[in-house]
Specification:
The chain is of the alpha+beta class and about 210 residues long. It contains 7 helices and 4 strands; from the N terminus they run ααβααβαβαβα.
């Protein structure tokens, strides 16, 4: 494959894609075309991974019992998280919508296989966590691919990962990286929802230290 020179128009569109990526919590319930979803999932195949280990393991959570267990997991963890705040912050937290699990038509649990022998340990001997970082890199590409198709992704991290692993009956060496809601977003914005509601502000610049 020859080198590609990207145009200014492409770079402008790519910048827009990054700005509109957003962590989505409010979904429409419209079904997703399977061909579109498959095309987006192909981002995992194209993603970088330490030692070419490709340690990601993706489970599509479809059955009602599995979805109910995941929702209960979130609700329990969310109630516990609320107890860690007080005053105005607790009131604000209680109003946050932190999951689209009751609306999103597609839900995925993504794990890292810490015991994979693919890649033969290259690059993971001193930093075995690189396998998990590789899964996160793949998820990021998947996220962008979804957005390019007009879809959104919500990363649910307020969960008990061990309970999720038990509920989905995965191998002992798999570690949950995240639970993901996928669907068409109700709204599109280039401003994070947590910034819109006053929870936190995005940094305007990247502090880079020189040593």
């Amino acid at each position: 494959m020859r080198d590609q020179t990207f145009t200014n128009d492409f770079r402008t569109q790519f910048d827009l894609l990054l700005r509109l990526r957003r962590d989505v919590r409010r979904f429409r319930t419209d079904a997703i075309d399977e061909a579109v979803l498959t095309r987006c999932l192909d981002a995992f195949r194209l993603a970088p991974s330490v030692g070419l280990s490709e340690p990601w393991r993706v489970i599509r959570v479809e059955s009602q019992p599995a979805r109910d267990a995941a929702l209960q997991n979130f609700q329990t963890a969310n109630a516990q998280a609320l107890e860690g705040y007080s005053g105005e912050k607790a009131q604000l937290y209680s109003r946050l919508k932190l999951s689209g699990m009751q609306e999103a038509p597609v839900q995925l649990a993504v794990f890292c296989d810490d015991a994979t022998d693919k890649g033969q340990g290259l690059g993971a001997g001193t930093m075995p966590e690189m396998r998990r970082y590789s899964v996160v890199s793949a998820i990021t590409l998947f996220w962008l691919a979804l957005r390019a198709e007009g879809l959104g992704l919500g990363w649910v991290s307020i969960l008990d990962p061990d309970q999720m692993a038990r509920d989905l009956d995965v191998p002992d060496d798999w570690r949950l990286i995240g639970y993901f809601c996928v669907g068409y977003p109700k709204d599109v914005s280039d401003t994070p929802e947590l910034e819109q509601v006053g929870w936190e502000n995005r940094n305007d610049s990247l502090p880079v230290e020189v040593r």
